[in-house]
Amino acid sequence: MNNSFLKLVTIIFLIVFITVSPTIRAEKNFFAKEIDDETYLIENPQRFLQLKQPRVALALGGGGARAFVNIGVIKALKEENIPVDMIVGTSMGSIIGTMYGSGMSVEKMEEVLNQVPFSNLFDLSSQLNKSLLKTEKVNKFIEDIAPHKSLEEFPIPTALLSFDLNSGYKYLNTEGQISRVLQSSYAIPFYFPVKKNSERYLMDPGILEMSPAKAAKALGGDFIITTTAFDELPYQKYNTSLRSAIRFLTLVQKRNSLEIINEYSDVVINNQVGHFSFMDFDAAQQLIDLGYQQTQKKIGLIKEKLKSRNIKLNHPDLSTEIDYSDALNDLKYNRQLLPGMRINPLLYYGQDYSIFNPDLLRSALNEVQYGFEMERGKLEVISLAQRNLKKQWEVQTRWKKLSEDFDLIAKTKLQDTEIIDWKLGLKYYDDNYTLELGRGSLDDEECIYLDNSFAWQSDSLSWKSESDLVAPSFSELEVLTSQKLKFQLSSIWTIVPKIVYNSSDIIVSPIIYRGKEQNNSANLQGAIDFAYTHQFMPSVELAQIFQLANIGLYSFVDYQSQGQSNWASGLGIKADFNLLGLKPIDLRAYSAYSLESDKINHELNITYNF
């Protein structure tokens, strides 16, 4: 993944290592290949060298989210029967190359990228001296959705380019389990942890070779098709040391990459993505379409050059059908089983993330909730406190995958009222819904409970539902239900109705009413947001880490009823403040006028979930 700030961090490493000439030690299954006075360390290159000549290589460049254009490139090449005998990837290009090389069809790749919850792929690291984000989940997810799990098994020979900090040479992975080797090609110091492989420390090689055309040549490529996803050179003024350094490193990167691309590529597909950010993960389909269109423009040239080299058009379908819904559900419901013990910090502010409360709609909460999540194998423990342990302390223990579709979940809540709430149940997971059945005690009243959630989506409509049913006795049944719909009326207008109904005295309602007379015992609440989603202001990047995006205006009408009815209406502004485009902080400010009390309620909500 490419971004400007990483260059400032990695240049410290690279200046040292590329200016020395250490001796390469002979290793089993490793091969040192010199090409124009530069050495590549290659794992077992025999499979590549045994390919029938002439060999057509596809060199997929990086660029963070911008590199999603590579999927569009592959789509166009496949449609036009352009041969691809081998794939070499750098950074995000390695992830795309791994997906396709493993036997995934382009159609499945598009489906996955349009469904995957990107914010679930990474966790905030508790060891910030090593990296900002953890990467185990994304590595495991890519392996789970891949038809073949190890590079040497791929139907299309695939290599991942990285840089070895120990030897100072570029390094090509050609074998190994995906979850163990993929990270080496996108490991950006500070952002993602450098990958340790035996005595090697491998990282993203983007500053030296953002598009791996030369690496493809080192692997025996005879005809090389190279993709690029360069960003625009940042800033027009260089009045700070950081801006000056970023400008310098951007120029170094572009010069290094262009020299390689021009020297070793037979065809270059330059994707004009400068107006996109490396953090624009929500623009996946736009980027795929752009890559497809850019490649279509080059098809005539590619065919002409292939013909001049006597290379026949032949792109056989080597894809393997695979049902990736289980992998997607495991990511969505946090049911992945990862090796070792993992401890993640939890920090919430702005909304109530109580383990006992509904997830779909949350009440505003101007207090910090903090704790940790510990995972080891199938066991997960979550501890969450509000203000201090005496105010409220909750613990959830979950045994994942008791069977393929069931988890065992136990929850406990200690409060300053000295009442202990608890729940023990089995939870069932499906593609679009979950069900949890069990027994518990809520507000000092024992009950049987049934919780369920549901989600459905089409092109212009989405519907999410969450309901909690409790039976304190066989003759009583109480319910809390939350419903949220989203109608996409046009490219710039969206309507979002929300409803909360509660007939229970022992389950707390989320508060969605925004007027002055907020009442958490209201039995009926309703809200309709009219959102103007046209991008009237472009995304703003801060320090190459944060991105202010999806800035929009909305108006709303709210209703609540508990004995008497209350109405409120108002205007608001919203935005996402994203960490690397992946971890959003939700920013909302609104003013609500209450019709009954003739009062105005002003609120600023900053909701973060790390």
TrEMBL record:
Q: Where is the signal peptide?
A: none
Domain (PNPLA) spans 58-217
Top-level taxonomic group: Bacteria
Keywords of the record? Hydrolase, Lipid degradation, Lipid metabolism
Record keyword Lipid metabolism present: yes
GXSXG: where is this motif?
Answer: 89-93
What positions constitute the catalytic site?
Answer: S91 (nucleophile), D204 (proton acceptor)
* Protein name, as recorded: NTE family protein
Species of the source: Halanaerobacter jeridensis
Lineage of source species = Bacteria, Bacillati, Bacillota, Clostridia, Halanaerobiales
